[in-house]
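[recover] target loaded
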């Protein structure tokens, strides 16, 4: 059985306690590897290694030297593309078609994107008058924030981890990564790439484990950590925020969402249906930016629902390496039980089940996997738990609306504010409505179209802070003002 150890100070480290846990493939239930659970000792070692690296070779490197290394990291991922692809697909069950176009290429690109960003980042300079008439010059220096704790989710493991590690390393920080216990493989594999690219020991560290009373809690409460960045559910984000309050450490939180799509009667229906199918069912609905609430203007409501139903029923569930597969399983049996509880609750509340609502029959070994049907509901009240709570599965509720003000109010009636999608060919309405939606990202006539230079993050209970482009630099660096009296 393959072992996955912690990656600390440039080498692989077993758990001193001897504690391990299984890494299970959600597609067929087989054990992929045995993972060493980091305890306090391993977390202490990782943080100490990261602090030491700040004062060593890494801390003395110029921006151009760091940029050159990060380019090698990206090239190293691409050189081992098939290894990363298989590891990611086995950990998550997601189809090759998805991971090969999104997860692995974007995971590699994050290093080059942020290398280029830091290389071209400037700071402000001001000339000021002084009472004696000689004047002064103020200029800013951008310096690393220090040791960054990176706590990652399981839905897009490599992509969302490198989305944080890339800018952190570009800015000269060091990192201790805590991947999800469900998906430890690619974070660990990246350690080999880091070594091959010439990243000094201690700059990139990985500790495996769980949240409470495990690696996650030990890391986020560690006094040697200078800042914490997290993507995951809101409740966990609240616990991390409490831990970060001790020592007044900086945080960046990208948390849950209950995202709305609005389809106006003048929308291009082909585009709206195709985009909504992706936003509701891509990655088996396990996307923080996904759509679980769909509002459709009444004149096109019936046609939209019928076409969405056909699209959902045409999805092909299967093994990750089957070219015909368009949807994989949920990440775990525990998560499937949670999603199925919402499926049952929807029926209890009187929802019309347009399609799905249960567990599909899967052939052979796949019958042991965490499969679930893509599901569409109509007919529920806006205050029902199905409409209010994040489910994080391949499902959506579709409701009709009659006017613009009504649908804006419904879309904004949530504790979350991560993303939204508008579908209309009326450019005036597009701008008018987008400005009124309470969400960090509003896509129009598209979904998941990401320019990595733009700000990414949520409002309300969907998070704190922004990442992407120079916005990431604001989190991963400290600005120091130098005042020079002339």
């Amino acid at each position: 059985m393959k072992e996955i150890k912690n990656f600390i100070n440039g080498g692989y480290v077993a758990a001193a306690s001897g504690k391990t846990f299984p890494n299970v493939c959600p597609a067929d239930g087989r054990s992929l590897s045995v993972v060493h659970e980091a305890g306090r000792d391993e977390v202490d070692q990782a943080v100490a290694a990261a602090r030491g690296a700040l004062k060593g070779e890494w801390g003395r490197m110029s921006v151009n030297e760091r940029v050159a290394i990060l380019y090698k990291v990206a090239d190293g991922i691409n050189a081992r593309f098939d290894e990363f692809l298989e590891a990611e697909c086995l950990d998550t069950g997601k189809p090759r078609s998805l991971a090969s176009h999104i997860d692995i290429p974007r995971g590699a690109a994050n290093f080059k994107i942020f290398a280029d960003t830091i290389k071209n980042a400037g700071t402000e300079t001001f000339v000021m008058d002084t009472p004696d008439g000689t004047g002064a010059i103020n200029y800013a220096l951008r310096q690393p924030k220090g040791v960054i704790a990176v706590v990652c989710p399981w839905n897009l493991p490599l992509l969302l981890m490198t989305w944080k590690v890339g800018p952190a390393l570009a800015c000269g920080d060091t990192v201790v990564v805590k991947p999800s216990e469900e998906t430890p493989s690619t974070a660990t594999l990246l350690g080999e790439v880091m070594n091959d690219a010439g990243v000094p020991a201690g700059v990139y560290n990985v500790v495996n484990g769980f949240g409470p009373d495990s690696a996650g809690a030990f890391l986020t409460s560690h006094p040697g950590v200078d800042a914490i960045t997290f993507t995951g559910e809101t409740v966990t984000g609240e616990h991390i925020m409490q831990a970060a309050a001790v020592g007044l450490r900086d945080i960046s939180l990208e948390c849950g969402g209950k995202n709305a799509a609005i389809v106006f009667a003048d929308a291009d229906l082909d585009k709206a249906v195709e985009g909504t199918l992706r936003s509701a069912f891509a990655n088996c609905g396990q996307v923080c930016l996904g759509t679980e609430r769909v509002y459709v203007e009444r004149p096109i409501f019936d046609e939209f629902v019928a076409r969405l139903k056909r699209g959902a029923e045409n999805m092909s569930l299967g093994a990750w390496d089957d070219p015909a597969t368009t949807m994989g399983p949920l990440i775990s049996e525990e998560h499937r039980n949670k999603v199925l509880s919402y499926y049952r609750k929807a029926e209890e509340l009187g929802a019309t089940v347009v399609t799905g609502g249960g567990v599909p029959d899967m052939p052979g070994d796949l019958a042991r996997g965490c499969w679930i049907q893509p599901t569409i509901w109509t007919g529920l009240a806006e205050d029902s738990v199905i409409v209010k709570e994040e489910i994080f599965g391949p499902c959506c509720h579709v409701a009709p609306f009659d006017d613009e003000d009504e649908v804006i109010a419904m879309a904004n009636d949530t504790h979350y504010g991560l993303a939204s999608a508008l579908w209309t060919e009326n450019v005036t309405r597009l701008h008018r409505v987008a400005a009124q939606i309470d969400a960090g990202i509003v896509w129009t006539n598209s979904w998941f179209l990401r320019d990595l230079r733009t700000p990414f993050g949520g409002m309300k209970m969907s998070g704190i802070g922004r990442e992407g482009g120079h916005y990431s630099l604001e989190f991963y660096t400290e600005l120091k003002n130098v005042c020079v009296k002339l």
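[recover] notes: Residues 96-119 form the longest helix (24 residues).
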